[in-house]
């Protein structure tokens, strides 16, 4: 009985996992951590709490905040510690993943949806990663 309940709970979770389809010609994209951002948990938990506590997760806001912290420390514009190495790796993985499909970058997809619909009807990131972005360049 418990096994069946677990199966249906998993099925409901995976079928309800958020997909973003702002640029419809590109096809839907599964969002990183289901919110399109690094999480406030995992490798970035302590850094997100220390440097980004005023940011709400989603749309890449935590990733942008932590990336800004890295840059500020590197350029000498912030005192204190940098983002930890494991979090830096997660940030890099997030950015690589997001660059593969325009609908994984929610702010970019919103900004470019009209131009993509007009100029890139044949581009599909699900078939050829980053093809919409390449088309828009």
From TrEMBL:
<keyword id="KW-0732">Signal</keyword>
<dbReference type="InterPro" id="IPR039728">
    <property type="entry name" value="GLG1"/>
</dbReference>
<feature type="signal peptide">
    <location>
        <begin position="1"/>
        <end position="16"/>
    </location>
</feature>
<dbReference type="InterPro" id="IPR001893">
    <property type="entry name" value="Cys-rich_GLG1_repeat"/>
</dbReference>
<protein>
    <recommendedName>
        <fullName>Secreted protein</fullName>
    </recommendedName>
</protein>
<dbReference type="Pfam" id="PF00839">
    <property type="entry name" value="Cys_rich_FGFR"/>
</dbReference>
